[in-house]
Design brief:
The complex is a heterodimer of chains A (313) and B (489). With 313 residues, chain A is an all-alpha fold. Chain A has one domain: ABC transporter involved in vitamin B12 uptake, BtuC (Orthogonal Bundle), CATH 1.10.3470. Chain A is 76% helix and 1% strand. Chain A is built from 14 helices and two strands; from the N terminus they run H-H-H-H-H-H-H-E-E-H-H-H-H-H-H-H. In chain A, helix 4 (71-86) crosses helix 11, helix 8 (166-183) packs across helix 9 and helix 12 (243-253) packs across helix 13 (265-284). The two termini of chain A are 31 Å apart. Chain B has 17 helices and 22 strands. In chain B, the strands form five sheets. Chain B has a six-stranded mixed sheet, sandwiched between helices. In chain B, a hairpin with a 2-residue loop joins strand 11 and strand 12. In chain B, helix 12 (344-355) packs parallel to helix 14. Chain B is elongated and about 75 Å long. Chain B starts with a strand and ends with a helix. The chains are: A mainly alpha (313), B alpha/beta (489). Chains A and B meet through helix 9 and helix 10 of A and helix 10, helix 11 and helix 12 of B.
């Protein structure tokens, strides 16, 4: 028992986010035991999947020392584009999904190249990209979304194999890819780049390439999240609104340092789960959903403040 | 007017200055000379109120003083002209001179009065040709220096500290500075003149104080000493440290530079031989690090030829240089050598991973990194410890392990033992010699002249971005210093 306690302490020292998540899950278990029915638990994971995927993508960018503020509007753009291109035609489903991934790739590449080669701070690059995507989508659709998604497309967000939703399977795939990437040499050099880009360059790391790949990963992950979100809900300009901040909050909550070089992708994804559990709990406790963004704001400030305190000591 | 008596200062337990006396009379130009790290800057910072001495007294105009900060020293009449100017590039000369103390009229800046007063100050030192309304950023370095001097004069400076005033000046501008210094002297200004360049010291100054290892060696009248004698005072010390035996003979030419240059370096021709250590000496700013960085492709050569083992190469990035078999151990470990928050093992494997990335970790490479860390004798609590918690010597060993994993043919060491304790220093010296004896060509830069003489098979002395001369490894400090300072013998 004492060795178990010791291990728990060790884990919580390395991953404090796990402690927070377990605490929240405990409170939830007390207040709403039915949360732990397999079906409801899987439904929760399905709902959480897009944010966890976005957080994983955002992690690559943040750990390399940058930000990606464009993912929210990218999600919106992807869904709106998909609806217009598919326009109810089932045969278009898979080609359009390929186009969505391709579009994510292009946006990520643009973010990465502008940030690295033109030396525009990523904060500005991706803020600009955010506005460009919003404006482009409004213009292209003439102000309101057109077309419709097919049932096949929505299946990915809505349906299940047996009791396991597709979304949860996709999440598992994406999480596995993210974990493998960070265990690979690419992941290690990305951490080194975020820690000290000068050292990384002088040690032979292709720093520009690494940072560009991080942006591409973030945008492609956003495209995957868009596929799931398109299935969950309707086609609207609101579908991706605010997701960039939720993703950054999740990553920071996971203890990943802004400025790069510190933190794990597991913690970033746990951060996203924690955020979703917290929202569920607030809902259960009857706190108004209107407070959601205020809570996020508090969390992001507190998490960064605590992180700064820890790195100083 | 200024008297320092028995001044001492230490930082973090290291005695930087000890029992130093210095006296400056009105109308005197007094040189302070010494090797890199002799304590010149610290002494100037004490005189100008930046540092507080731990021991000794500072008398200024006949009274004991203890300046709280540089502003107080300034107000008392001690001006300092730093190597790096403190000027706002987008403002005019007059605005810079009166920055923060602008003459006011009805609460607004009285531009006319400000320009007028600046003009008369300029006239008083024979610099009428400089307009008070000129934008500082568009001026040459020499005129910016004049602006700094006028700023000091506007504060009624009675003495000036000039730190390497000619470092950034072109040859013809140096002449103009000479004239200015002489006019200031004629007005009764006392000037402390810090310079590496012995020619200026002999041209301009009345007395010379020589510092060495934080102590005053001597103070002499400039007219009573020769350049050779001065150099002897600057270097005179006994070699006592043990260095590994030097190599018997040179192997083949590994890396050859022919007429290589870029914006910092001119007409560099050098050869690095397998099995040998080539020491690069030179004063700060002589282009030593620029040479290593150019070879490594950081600020690449734009002219000339580079051959590696007989094949012509052109390297424009560190990555290419590493691929070609070159390693660079940087001068500033923290800024350019470490990824401080990553583990010892990750730091040791960084170059390997960067050059041949794999999807899955292979046991073989990790094992090799571990072996190398053990071979260079890194002492860490664990290989997972963040490298920032290691001592300087251990950090340097981790960086060495990083490069050894790639078995480089050419190694460039820039100040490899700076900030490292004596024990680790000897270990690193041995490692460098071992690498050379195994066939690598080594280039070693160091400000520590005895170290360089102890380690090098051959020496190249740099001055102003050029090779001032090559010497055998048996050369003595005086010969090196004469070449490095340009004091012709």
């Amino acid at each position: 028992m004492s060795s178990l306690a010791l291990r728990a302490r060790k884990v919580s020292a390395r991953q404090p986010i796990l402690l927070i998540l377990l605490t929240l899950l405990f409170v939830l278990a007390v207040r709403q035991p039915e949360f732990y029915d397999p079906a409801s638990l899987l439904a929760f994971l399905k709902r959480a999947a897009p944010l966890v995927i976005l957080a994983a993508g955002q992690y690559f960018v943040i750990v390399a020392g940058d930000f990606d503020l464009s993912v929210g509007s990218l999600v919106t753009a992807e869904v709106v584009i998909a609806a217009r291109l598919i326009d109810g035609d089932p045969s278009m489903t898979w080609p359009v999904i390929a186009i969505m991934i391709g579009f994510g790739l292009v946006v990520g590449l643009a973010n990465g190249l502008i940030t690295t080669l033109l030396h525009v701070p990523s904060f500005i690059t991706t803020l600009g990209m955010y506005l460009i995507l919003v404006g482009a989508v409004y213009t292209w659709t003439g102000g309101s979304p057109r077309g419709a998604l097919t049932e096949q497309f929505r299946m990915l967000g809505r349906n299940s194999i047996g009791i396991v939703p597709y979304a949860v399977l996709i999440l598992a795939c994406v999480a596995t890819i993210a974990l493998l990437l960070m265990r690979s040499d690419f992941g290690k050099t990305l951490l080194a780049t975020g820690d000290n880009p000068r050292t990384a360059r002088l040690s032979g790391v292709p720093v520009v390439r690494a940072r560009v790949i991080a942006f591409i990963l973030s945008a492609v992950f956003a495209a995957v999240a868009a596929i799931l979100l398109g299935g969950f809900g309707g086609v609207s300009f609101q579908v991706g609104a605010g997701l960039e901040f939720s993703a950054i909050t999740a990553v920071v909550l996971g203890g990943v340092a802004l400025g790069g070089g510190r933190g794990t992708v597991t913690a970033a994804m746990l951060g996203a789960l924690t955020l979703e559990v917290l929202f569920t709990l607030l809902n259960v406790l009857g706190v108004s959903g209107a407070l959601k963004s205020a809570v996020q704001g508090l969390i992001i400030i507190a998490a960064v403040a605590i992180g700064a305190r820890r790195s100083r000591s | 007017m200024l008297q320092l008596r028995g001044v001492g200062k230490s930082f973090l337990g290291v005695q930087v200055l000890q029992d130093v006396d210095l006296e400056l009379a009105a109308g005197e130009v007094h040189a302070v000379v010494g090797e890199n790290g002799a304590g010149k800057s610290t002494l100037m910072k004490i005189a100008s109120g930046v540092y507080h001495p731990d021991a000794g007294t500072v008398r200024w105009l006949g009274r004991d003083v203890s300046f709280r900060d540089p502003r107080q020293a300034q107000a008392a009449g001690i001006g300092i002209i730093h190597q790096e100017f403190n000027l706002l590039a987008d403002r005019t000369v007059a605005q810079n001179v009166f920055l923060g103390r602008e003459p006011l009229r009805r609460g607004l800046v009285d531009t006319a009065a400000m320009n007028e007063r600046t003009a008369s100050l300029l006239a008083s030192i024979g610099e009428e040709s400089l307009s008070p309304q000129a934008i500082v950023g568009r001026l040459g370095v020499a005129q910016q220096q004049v602006t700094e001097i006028v700023k000091a004069l506007s504060l009624d400076a009675r003495m000036l500290i000039m730190d390497e005033p000619t470092a950034a000046l072109a040859d013809h501008e140096v002449e103009l500075l000479y004239g200015l210094v002489r006019r200031l002297k004629a007005r009764g200004m006392g000037i402390l003149y810090v310079s590496h360049r012995l020619k200026e010291v002999f041209d301009l100054t009345d007395r010379i104080t020589v510092l060495k290892d934080g102590r005053r060696v001597t103070t002499v009248d400039t007219s009573s000493i020769t350049a050779d004698g001065l150099v002897r005072h600057m270097v005179g010390r006994e070699l006592s440290h043990y260095y590994p035996p030097k190599s018997a003979e040179a192997g083949q030419e590994r890396l050859t530079l022919q007429g290589a240059g870029n914006n910092r370096l001119h007409d560099i021709s050098l050869a690095l031989h397998a099995g040998q250590v080539l020491g690069i000496c030179g004063l700060q700013g002589s282009g030593r690090s620029a040479l290593a960085r150019a070879i490594f492709g950081v600020d690449a050569f734009t002219r000339g030829n580079v051959h590696l083992d007989g094949a012509s190469i052109r390297l424009s990035s560190p990555r290419q240089a590493i691929r070609a078999g070159i390693a660079y151990i940087t001068e500033d470990r923290k800024a350019e050598g470490l990824t401080a928050q990553q583990s010892v093992l990750d730091n040791a494997m960084l170059a390997t991973r960067a050059l041949s990335p794999r999807w899955f970790a292979t046991a073989g490479r990790t094992l090799k990194a571990r072996e190398l860390l053990a071979a260079v004798e890194v002492h860490a609590a664990s290989e997972e410890q963040e490298v920032r918690y290691l001592s300087g010597g251990n950090q340097q060993k981790v960086i060495l392990a990083r490069w050894l994993a790639l078995t480089p043919r050419v190694l460039l060491f820039d100040e490899p033992t700076r900030g490292i304790d004596v024990g680790a220093k000897a270990a690193i010296h041995d490692l460098i010699r071992k690498l050379a004896s195994e066939g690598a060509a080594v280039l070693m830069i160091s400000s520590d002249l005895p170290e360089l003489l102890g380690m090098s098979d051959r020496l190249a002395v740099m001055r102003d971005g050029r090779i001032a001369g090559e010497l055998p490894g048996t050369a003595d400090e005086e010969t090196v210093m004469r070449l490095a300072t340009g004091a012709s013998s």
